[in-house]
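Posting this for the archive.
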Amino acid sequence: MGTLREWRSGGERTLAIFIKSLEGVVTTVELRNEDAVEGKLDAVDAGMNIFMTDVVMHRPDGSSLQLPHVFVRGSQIRYVHVPDHIDPVRAIQGQLNVFHRKPPKRRAKPKGKGPLPSHTVHGNPGGGRGRGRGGITGAVG
């Protein structure tokens, strides 16, 4: 959830990056409507939207409901419980290192049988950027 481009456009400067470090961990998320969901945090995006699996939803009246998966919108989150074995500083640094890695260099494309024929260059008949936008095509006289 959430592409690297989305994260680099501001997601790395929010608390969502810390929540992203909890991916794969069983935790509890308290919601604004007083419900709490407990389960494995599978994915987090830059908007702090959360996807969880193997969830138990605890209602304010004391009842609970088991669900295979749950999507929680980031704006509905009140609190995320961080397990004791997670070091917040290390978790954030680890996620920042992931996002600041340079992408692998792309290999050069193998060269074909030489340069393209001159008739395929932009603006020449038989190739280029299409037919244009219309208008007068020829000498005005």
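The first strand starts at residue 26 and ends at 31. The longest helix spans residues 88-100.
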